[in-house]
Amino acid sequence: MQCCWKSMVLLALASIAIQYTAIRTFSTKSLGLALTGHAVNCSLKDLTRLGQETLEGSDQGCDEILSHTSSSSPSVSLPSDSANKRTHILILATTRSGSSFVGQLFNQHPEVFYLFEPLYHVQLAVLPRLAQSRNLAERRVMLGAARDLLRSLYHCHLNSLESYIRPRPANHSTDKLFRRGASRSLCSPPVCEAPLGREVQSLVLADEGECARRCGPLNVSLAADACRAMRHAAIKTVRIPQISDLRALIEDPRLNLKVVQLVRDPRGILASRIETFRDTYRLWRLWRATGRRPHNLDLGQINTVCEDFLRSVSTGLARPAWLRGRYILLRYEDLARFPLQKTRELYSFLGLVLHRSVEDWIINNTRGSSDLSSRQKFTTVRDSAANAENWRVKLSFDMVVHTQTVCQPLFKLLGYKTVFHPRELRNLSHSLVEDRTFHPFF
Length: 442
Ligand SMILES: *[C@@H]1O[C@H](CO)[C@@H](O)[C@H](O)[C@H]1NC(C)=O
Ligand SMILES: *[C@@H]1O[C@H](CO)[C@@H](O)[C@H](O)[C@H]1NC(C)=O
Ligand SMILES: *[C@@H]1O[C@H](CO)[C@@H](O)[C@H](O)[C@H]1NC(C)=O
Ligand SMILES: *[C@@H]1O[C@H](CO)[C@@H](O)[C@H](O)[C@H]1NC(C)=O
Ligand SMILES: *[C@@H]1O[C@H](CO)[C@@H](O)[C@H](O)[C@H]1NC(C)=O
Prior knowledge:
Belongs to the sulfotransferase 1 family. Gal/GlcNAc/GalNAc subfamily. It is built from 23 helices and nine strands.
């Protein structure tokens, strides 16, 4: 009886400690717990793991308990994958910054429920005409709705999304979910029972449309069940400008939200947007073609990226208490050059175990791949390293100079190098990314 009571106290303390202070002292400090005169000396990391096990005989010290429990869990050397602590991940990005690639790092994990850009529907419903409103009041309305929806989605209340989908789903069933095919969980059993066979993953990834064609309308209730059955959830969005817009969610202890802020050289973002959003970036193409800057060019299109990045990254790097253990900064260029290493760092920060299928996916879809034909099917991901650099041959020197001038403070912060001559720009053996490591803080 006494033994169980002790276990309960230990578990309760562990969960309280984890909830409120774990991150701060996660791997460094130790916590001494004195239980009825009997000292148990476990680090919080140990406690996290202990919290998942049924403790027997907690008269032992922490080492003994751990050696006892670890005999039944062979994965002791892995970071503690807070088994009963659901982790919620937000990929905070902007368009053409490599967010689809980062999303796949979670989408490919069999225990992560992944949603690709659900806030698309909020924006469409709240601000139908404006891609990125710079009107503060409008922005605030949109952000309030976005935060509420994110919170609901992480709690798997997927029907909250229904009120933003047009036409409004009947009977919790819709074929209008934006980029459903980008989400593995929404295209595989039990959400989709279509006879996709064993190649379900590769089929879905080969062509997102395949999912909608073969799975029929999405049953939102089934999707919510699938979300609940997964250990963790990840959402990618390009519709939240800055980290401070997420503060209320980050500070919510029930949510356990961790943010991966993805940044990229704004010159790379610009080049990629010019290719992708042909209408909205029409005047930039004109500039490139004629060598003369159109007088009515919307410079805000790139200035906004730099301002949002600058504010957000400055906030993150200033290490405010509310971001402790909850913020990691990732440069797309680093991910492109060292995909496996950076992914391991990401998972380690999140406290999740990196799954073999994620590593396989990376190997298949980056420069490591030798099988070119299988790679060509992928639309969102090409050779990531080459892709990250190819802006250097696509932008005119004038456009590069313009961008690096307006984004100068950001370049300093993120370690992107300014070029002074076209020769420097086109010489790809001259790197424009300084070696920098942005450690998360705990
Ligand atoms: C707990 O561990 C720390 C660091 O390893 C040590 O300094 C301290 O004396 C230990 N406390 C107990 C009660 O064993
Ligand atoms: C919704 O379900 C009800 C009962 O199952 C059915 O009668 C109705 O036609 C359905 N509505 C739509 C729009 O499918
Ligand atoms: C969705 O799935 C639920 C649970 O299996 C089921 O009861 C419901 O009828 C399904 N809805 C539709 C429209 O098929
Ligand atoms: C990686 O490629 C191999 C060989 O083409 C394939 O069998 C495997 O399913 C792929 N894995 C992933 C996760 O894409
Ligand atoms: C290209 O850059 C490399 C590394 O900075 C330098 O050694 C080389 O001379 C440059 N080549 C040309 C043609 O400028």
